[in-house]
Amino acid sequence: MFVANRFTQYTDEDYDLVTGVNLGGFFHITRHAIEHMERLGSGHVVTTTLAEHADVKVPSVLASLTNGGLAAVTKSLATEYAATGIRVNAVSPGVIKTPTHAPETYDDLGTLHPIGRMVETSDVVSAIMYLESAPFVTGEFMARHSGTLLGTWEPSTPPHARPTSSSPTTPAEPAGRRGRRQESRQKIEPATHRHRKPLETAARAI
Description:
Blueprint lengths: L11 H29 L2 E6 L12 H21 L4 E8 L12 H5 L10 H12 L8 E4 L62
Parallel strand pairs: 1-2, 2-3
């Protein structure tokens, strides 16, 4: 459940709704699931939650609150039940291409990710299948956001097409045996520095 709003404008109803679904839903369903897994002597819990990234353009403290709780409980339960053969992991995707978003918004939403596209449902499934096939992995909070949290980037320009300096670089002169030069060597004119407009970078993630 995701409700975006400024912190002071959230209502008690918003709080009850988001925490009730995101935390209460996890608590009640997972409690019954682990009870059954304990009887079987093994099991695997995988939770999906939001990517951990605050964005001033999309204030969503309640989502951050519940997301942090799920991240913490994943590690806590993984530790508590490791000896019983039960593993607990979580997958944290970015913006997923689902009917929740109108098709005409896909291109804009794709710019929220460095690789230039939205997260496909198959991307999330492949992460879950990996965790399922990795019996030694537990307590993992796996990011599946296509690099959103790695740093800043230029959304409108793919990494391989970004401009590079056309000015040739002069290698540093080696020191030591080749470091001595005649005092009468010809002076080299200093390179001209061109003023370039800084790239306007913007990184947004939900």
